[in-house]
Amino acid sequence: MSRIVLVTGGASGIGLALARRFAAAGDRVVLADIQDQAGEAAATELGGEASYRHLDVADEGAVEPAMADIETDIGPIEVLVNSAGLLQNRAAIATMPLDEHDRIWAVNYRGSYLMCRACGPRMAARGGGAILNIASVNSFTPLPLPAYTPTKAAIDTLTKVLAGEFGPSGVRVNAVAPGFTLTPAMQSRIDSGDRDPAGMEALSTLGRLVRPEEVAEAGYFLCSEAASAITGVNLLVDCGYMAAISYNSYPS
Question: Is the pTM of this model over 0.90?
Fold first, then answer.
């Protein structure tokens, strides 16, 4: 049965991969992003009844009206995918610009929180729905990304909190935790020399980077009826990164 699926950050990367997966299953996808040209192109690519809305998830004053408009114009949002997010390069607390830190928190955590606050109660009032947050391997282990890493740890906890709050109303809240994923944003960092692909590949048991489509498959599953008994989970999709860092560090 076709559902209305809202994907923030849906113009590129993991968000676009998720949008493609839901559209391929026959769902009606609404993309939300601040990249208007890419978002419109993505909606055209998806075809069918897919559409695009401009939305900065960090703008508290814009989120609630946008959700009301979507539900009035299109219908009730049955699946929310919080994929809007910002990356960062390696940094130290003493030298990282505070405005960059605050913007990452505003989008990665607060933006996801605002979206859940706008959509979760609506789903609960209707007796069902699914929310998917995008966490990271950073949710489980510290990396030298002093803004990004704590946001993803917070997303892990938020997912569990909301699973507890909305579960009695039939709303499931889960997350996926990608490892190093070859998104366009990651590729641009590789091209600029800010990331070493060989070094990242060597940190996983499978010896490669994650593909966005692999994250999308896991996310789609968590939002599907096949996962009807699963909520409060943060599912690693990391080519074995978390297993490797423990296994390979065992002293001889």
Answer: yes
Question: Which are the contacts of 92, defined by CB distance < 8 A and separation ≥ 6?
Answer: 144, 146
Burial class (CB in 10 A: 0-12, 13-18, 19+), 185: middle
Helices (H), 47-145: 60-73, 98-105, 112-126
Q: What phi-psi label fits residue 219: left (phi over 0), alpha (psi between -120 and 50 degrees) or beta?
A: alpha
How many domains does the structure of the chain reveal? 1
Residues marked as catalytic: 148
Which pLDDT score is estimated for 119? 98
What are the mean pLDDT values of the chain's consecutive 10-residue runs (252 residues total)?
95 97 98 98 96 98 98 98 92 94 97 98 98 96 93 98 98 97 87 88 94 98 98 97 90 81
Is the residue at 142 inside a domain?
Answer: yes
pLDDT value of position 184: 87
H or E element in which residue 160 lies: helix 148-166
- Name residues whose C-beta falls within 8 Å of residue 136's C-beta, 6 or more positions apart in sequence: 148, 149, 152, 155, 177, 178, 179
- Residue 200: inside a domain: no
The enclosing domain of 28 has a CATH number of: 3.40.50.720
**Structural domain boundaries enclosing 233:** 4-181+211-240
